[in-house]
Amino acid sequence: MPLSTQSEAGDDQYILVASLDNVRNLSNILKAITLNDHALFNATPNGLKVTVEDSKCLQANAFIQADIFQEFTIREDSVGFLVNLTVLLDCLTIFGGSTVPGVTTALRMCYNGYGYPLTLFLEEGGVVTVCKINTQEPEEPIDFDFCSTNVTNKVILQSESLREAFSELDMTSEVLQITMSPSQPYFRLSTFGNSGNAHYDYPKDSDMMELFQCTKTQTNRYKMSLLKPSTKALALSSKVSVRTDNRGFLSLQYLVRNDDGQICFVEYYCCPDEEVEVE
Amino acid sequence: MDCMVTGGNVKVLAKAVHSLSRIGEEMYLEPQEDGLTLRTVNSSRSAYACFLFSPLFFQKYAPCRNPVFRCKMTVKSVQAVFRSLSSLEKTVERCHIELNREKCRLTFTLHCKHGLLKTHNLSFQDSESLQAVFDTDSCANVLRAQPRLLVDTVLHFPPSLEEVSVSVSAERVWFRSHVEEGADQSRAMLTELCLSAQEFEHFAVSHPTHITFCLKEMRGLLMFAEASGLPVSLYFDEPGRPVVLSLTDSVLEVSFVLATLSEESPPLNHSNSSAERKPNPPPPDDFLNDDIDSYLIAMETSELAGGSDCPPPPPPPPPCDPGVSRHRPREGEEEEGEQEEEEEEGEETETGRPPNKKFRSLLFGSVLPTSSQAANQTLRNQEVLASDSEEEEEEEEDPASP
User: Fold this and answer.
1) What is the mean predicted confidence (pLDDT) over B24-36?
2) Domain region containing A237
3) Which SUPFAM superfamilies is this protein grouped with (chain A) (predicted)?
């Protein structure tokens, strides 16, 4: 850890210190939730949760557990602040985010408490960059009140199969309709575009389907523009869990393996677009 | 219509659709007894492409009879069905194409690995048959080569190059980049390749000549030819007459008909416009408006299409011809369909830019205007070529149609 000696002196005053040998483990997962600039950081002894919201209809959360970090010290039960995500990502990739194996950027992220900037020390090949990003008043994130007890339908798919579907989705369609049902068509994605409609059906016994727990036929529409950013998380992930609750709210949970094989989660909540009568 | 394509043939079909998408915006689909045809024509009507898949290409092939069915749809929508060629090869096991007349939907169903089913219900429009008129038998020059040879040749031309010139002599063929007259000669890069007759499988030049045509469409065909490994035949005559590129296989026939530049010689079959045409410099738009009546597509309507099972063609003027109605609004009511079609044609041409070149159209050897603005006016003024003397009168009276 080339950085540790350098900032040793000031460590006492920080209420949050997190270090990573490979900054990509953080930057990649933050890219997957880039909906807009306002990212709410919430650190607890368990780890870091970053929340981004859009249009009061969509919320993306990234969870990075404490043990992903080489060092994770927190002096309070909970530390929260708001930073500009674009600026943060620019800083995290300030060395160009090289993908050459063996060349990694190390990160030490420190926060001094309310009113202080977020300080980043980035080091690659002996060069150190210090970035200070002003923090803003944390806002309370929207509570989507998505409880697992209210979940009516749930499937877990290998991301690979969903990636293909998402890459081919007809973007002229305003909505993506998701049908989940204990009977045919089991799990269906539908679009309604300029040139017609398209359906992608996944049978429940497909190799790609790891879990199929549907209790009731549900058809809900979600704004394509809201779901489109989730493809970034899909691209990184190896598995995805799709759940809907009794109100038609959608939860997409992505299991992401980072460069070192550790597991992080990205979660999207989305409100349904409108009521659809079940056919 | 109900047909099934399996295995590697799905990719062939997909490649065909991608090739067509390089040329036109709409795909004309026509299931006939002798196979399924997919056709397109570009917005300036200077390039036409046709793929005929014989019934043996399919695992199952049942064209619709009574009434004969033809339709057109945007090629983009069909392309969306076969979006990723690479994943297609890995995942798609079979493709089912079915027509639902009640819902007016053409359904493509892709049966993929892991039981994934992709269903695309595409809307379509009824259409007339689209057919370019060309006769490869009468062409003086015929070259046939493995696709690799032509692909490697074309590879040397920069992607921005619009046209390529081909010159043939008894033993050689030259491919040259074509630079417009008036273009900045100092900035243009010229590329020239010479191939010997021995490189070709078949080399029959009875009339040494020099033709120029669009490279983009040829690249579209070569993309398909390379994937299929079928030898490419080129049939051509003198400048101004179309060049035909074709591939033939036991289950497949592909023809691309491309207009060639008519720079040296005056048009032969249709001459009333060429009389006033200056031979060389690209004329201004105003001038071209005098010329536009001759801008018409080589598009025949029903009579050519596959003969026996087609309904008798409607009496002239050909309904597919967009020039008919607007020009003479007083002569009575047009059919609604015709009107609609015409409007669409107009939109199409506004969006798609016709090339800034004087290409003779595929059939009649006419001339294209230079700008898209001129193209709009052209559409308003388009005239049936069959009529003769009054055409000239109207041309005078009617410079910017009322």
Assistant:
1) 91
2) 148-270
3) DNA clamp
- Which residues in chain A touch residue B83, judged by CB atoms under 8 angstroms apart? 167-168
At residue A133, does pLDDT exceed 60?
Answer: yes
| Residue A76: inside a domain | yes
To the nearest 10°, the Cα dihedral for B394, B396, B400, B402?
Answer: -50
Chain B residue with CA closest to A197: the answer is: B121
* Structure letter (DSSP) for residue B249: E
Chain A interface, best mutation among B119, B122, B123, B125, by max A CB count within 10 A = B119
Q: How confident is the model over A51-74, as a mean pLDDT?
A: 94
Sign of CA dihedral B230, B235, B240, B242: negative
Rounded CA separation A208/A158 (Å): 5
Which domains can be identified in chain B, with CATH numbers? 2-126 (3.70.10.10), 136-248 (3.70.10.10), 274-397 (no CATH)
Token duo for residue A216: 């009731």
Task: Measure A58 CA to nearest chain B CA, in Å.
Answer: 27
Residue A90 lies in a domain: yes
And the tokens for A221? 């529409």
Same domain for A65 and A100, yes or no, is yes
Among candidate residues A104, A133, A162, the one where a domain is terminated: A133
Which residue in the set B73, B74, B118 is minimally distant from A198, CB to CB?
B118
Q: Nearest CB to A167: which of B73, B84, B118?
A: B84
- Whether residues B119 and A208 touch (CB distance < 8 A) is answered with no
Percent of chain B surpassing pLDDT 70: 63
Which domain-ending residue is among A133, A158, A190?
Answer: A133
Report the gap between the CA of A173 and the closest CA in chain B (Å): 12
Locus of tokens 């690249």: B219
Asked if the model's pLDDT at residue B371 lies above 50, the reply is no
According to the model, what pLDDT value does residue B122 have? 93
Contacts of B100 (CB under 8 A, 6+ apart): B106, B107, B121
Does residue A253 sit in the same domain as residue A194? Answer: yes
- A216 lies in a domain? yes
A163 and A127, same structural domain? no
Residue from B72, B109, B118, B125 to probe the interface with A (highest A Cβ count within 10 Å): B118
Which residues on chain B are in Cβ contact (under 8 Å) with A207?
Answer: 114-115
